[in-house]
Amino acid sequence: MDCIFCKIVEGTIPSKKVLENEHVVAFHDIQPAAPVHILIIPKKHFAGMNDAQDSDWPLIGEIHRAAQQIAKEQGVAETGYRLVNNCGKDAGQVVFHLHYHLLAGEKLGGLNAK
């Protein structure tokens, strides 16, 4: 498999990790869109949210638990952060391994619905 995030999980591609446990890895995005921009990924590979099976929902919960912990450790839990999952190419998903972006560190712009 030629998945960059799987290679980060394996340790064959370096990353600046902020958290790793049995189920999840979190690391700094190499192209940050905010002062704090952390990617949170499951160690298990599946392309995106639409590929999650019933058995994966506890893993999705682990990702959210990791986001809460990371926000506290990064000092942004009180001021606020955004947790984003892009699902599919039209939503802007570029790497097809489920992942969330934790964005914070400044007042983030609003989301304008069209």
UniProtKB/TrEMBL annotation:
PANTHER family the record matches: HISTIDINE TRIAD HIT PROTEIN (PTHR23089)
Sequence motif: Histidine triad motif, positions: 97-101
Stretches that traverse the bilayer: none
Protein name: Histidine triad nucleotide-binding protein
Cross-referenced InterPro entries: Histidine_triad_HIT, HIT-like, HIT-like_sf
Residue stretches making up the HIT domain: 4-113
